[in-house]
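Researcher: Can you fold this with zinc ion in place?
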Amino acid sequence: MSVEKVSRRELLQRAGILAASAGMPRHLRLMGMKLGGAGAGSAETTPGGSRVREGVVLPAGEGAAGLRPDFEWIRTVRLMIAEGYVPPFYPSLDYDPKKALALARRLNCDAFRYPTYSYVAFFPTKTRLPHHPELGGGDPFRDTVNLFHDAGLKVVAYNPLNHPFMDVNSDNPEYRDWMRYDAQGQPMITHHMGWTRFYEGCLNSPLREQIRERVREVVTNYPVDLMYFDGPYEGMDQESRFCHSKYCQAAYQKARGKNIPSQDGSATPQDLIDYWQWISEDVVVAFMREIADMVRQVRDVPVVFNDTGLLSRSVRSHAYPYVDGFMFEAADTPEEKLFNMRLGQSTGKVIWTYISSHTEYNTEHLKDKSVRGWYSAPVEGERLELDAAVATAAGVGYCYWGLNRLHYEPQDILDVPSIRALKGVFDFAQKNGRLLRSVSPRPQVGILTGAQTIRWYQSPMFIPQAYRNYYYGAWQLIKDLGYDAEPFLDYEMTAERLAKYELVYAPNAACLSSAQCSMLGNYVESGGTLLATHLTSVADEFGRPRHNYGLSELFGANLKVPEPLEIPDLYLHVPASDKLLPQDPQVMLFQAASSAEVIAETRDRGHRHTLGPAVVKRHQGKGQVIYVGSGLEAIYEETLNESLRAYFRSLLDPFLASTRTYELEFRPGLMPQFASSQNTLLLHLLANTGNIWKKHLVQEEFLPIKNVRVRLRLPQGRSAKSVALMWSGTKADWNVREGWVELTVPKVQVYEVIRVDLA
Ligand SMILES: [Zn+2]
C-alpha cells in the first residue's frame, strides 16, 4: 500500500490538492470546546468557506480545492447518456445526432455522452478494432460534436478500456491473441447485456496498444469537453479468475520472478497478495494512469471514469487518484446511495451518479439475467424524484441513462410524466446550481469503511455479502440520530483526515494495518472519540489474523476466542439503566482490561448465563474509546429497532450533541443531509417512505411525512435573514430562539430543502 500512497501523493501534489491541507498540524484534536459547552456551535466560516475551529482551518468541501474553475461544470453536470451497447447504436445503428440534440435540449441537459466504442467503433478508427458494420463512410461522432457545440452543450466521449467486445461468433483471427485464458488454456467469456457472448480481453496482450491508440485518435481528432472511461477492465464476469495468457505469464515472470499462482487452493496467502497487487496496481491501475497522462498531454480536459466497484474486490477500485472524478452508484436504497456519494466525495474527487438506472426491474423470471430490463425507461414520478434528490443533497453530477427509449418516441417526450419529472429535477439543478455548488457538508462523524476487509478478510464465520450491513448500518444509525457523517476508505486514513471528525466510527473494520491502528490510537490520545465494533483490527490490512485486537490496548479488551460466537436469544444488559436490549446473536468473547469500564454485558437467556462484557469504555490521553463486541449497527440496519437507536443515542450524544448543526425529530424514513457556506445553511430532507418490502427491483409508492419539526443552529454572531422551502416552493413559518432557527415543515413528499440565508 505504501508504494501506492507515494504515487498518489505525487499526483495530488501535481494537481495542487495538497496545498490546501499542507501546514495543518498533525495529531490536532479540537476537544476543549465540546465538553466545555462554551464553544458549542462555534464552528465559524471564513470568507473562503473554510471552517475554523480553535485556530485550525479545515478545507471547504473535500476536494473543492482540487478542481479548476474551468472544470467546475462537471460537479453538477446534467448529462444525457447515449449508450453504445443498446439501440439506437447496437445491434442496429439508428442514431440520428439532430434528434439526440433536440431531445437533450428538451430535457434541459447541458452535456451529452457519445459512445466512441462499445462492442464496435462508432467513429472511423484506424486501429485494428472492429467498426459498426453500418457506419459506412459516415462519422456520426464528428456530426455530434459539431451540432452539440454549436448549440452550446458539452460533449463527453465515452471510451471503454478493455470492456469485453470480442463476439464469440466472430472469425477475426486477432482475437485469439487478445483474449484472457484460464490455467487450462480455455478463453474466458462474459455475457454483458444478453445480445451474445464476448471473449474477455487481456490487458497484457497487444490489445492494450490498440485500445490506447483508439483513445488517442478520439482525444486528438475531436474537440471533446471531457474524456470518460469505462474500466480499465481485466475481465468482467470472470474478473476474479487469474489470466494465464502467454502475455500475462511473461509479464508476471518479469515483474515478480515467479509463476502466476494457481487458484486451486495451493497458493500461499503471500502469493495471492503479490499477484493481486501486480494485476491491480501494475497492470490495471497503471493503464488508467497511462491513459489519463496521455489524454492530458493531448487535450486539457477533465478525465472521469466509472469506479462503481469502489467497495468491491474489483482490480480497478484504486484507480481514482489519476482522474478528476468518477461514477459511483450501485446502491439498492436511497440511504445506501447517499452513503456511496459521500464516500466517493471523501476521496476529493467529483462524483457522478446515474439517475433512474434502477429501471432494471426484477429479473427473477428471466432465464438469462444478463438480458435485464429496459434501462432507458425512467422510473416513475416520485421514485425518480427521490433518486435525483439524493444526488442533489450530496451535490453530485446527474447522468440520465438515456437516449435509447427517447430516440424512438413519436410524441413530445414531455407528455410522459416521468420524463417531465426528470426535467423538473434538471430545471431545479440549473436554477440553483450556483447555490448548490457553493455549500459544503459539515460532518461531525467519520465512518471508517472497511475496503480492506471487503478485499481480504476471510474466516469461517464471515459472510462477505452481508458485510455492507455494518457500514450502511452505522450510517443509518448516525442519520437516525440526527447527525451527519462522512464515510471514508480505510486506506485513505490519515491523521489530518481523522482530525476533521469529532467522532470516528469503525463498524466491524476487521482489517487494519499496524500503522492505521497507531493513527487511531493517536487520534484518541489527542482528544478524539473512537467507537469501534465487533472484529475491528483482528487482522492486518491483508487479512492475516492477529489472534487479538490490534487495538487491544486502546479498547481495553483482550480476545478470548478468535472467532465470534453465535447463540440464539442473546440480550444486552445495560446496568446503568438496568435495561435488556436485543443483542447481536453473533458476539466476540473478550476480557476487559482493568483500565476499561464495562458498560454493558451479554446475557445468554437460554442458558441462564452471562457471557461477559459486551461494551467497554475507556479514557486514553485526552480522548475516549468505546468498543462494542458485536455488530449492533448491522442489527440496527436489519431491524431499525428503537431501543437500539436509543442506546446509541445515550452513547453518542455526550460527544456530539453540543456541536450539532441541526436538530430533527426522528421520523421513520426521513433522512437529513446538511451543507452550508459563508452565507447560507441548507438542510435537505429525503423522505423514503415507500412500500418496497423484501424485493428491491420493483416499483414503489410513497407517503408524505407531515409536520416535521426542525432546528438549524445559527453560526455565532449571525442571524437569519430569510428561510425558504426550496423544493415545494411553499412558505416557511419560522422563528429564532436562543441561536436556533426553528420551523415546522408542513409536508415532505419525497424531498424538501430548507434554505436559511444568513445576515
Ligand atoms: Zn492476461
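Model: Folded with zinc ion in place. The radius of gyration is 26 Å.
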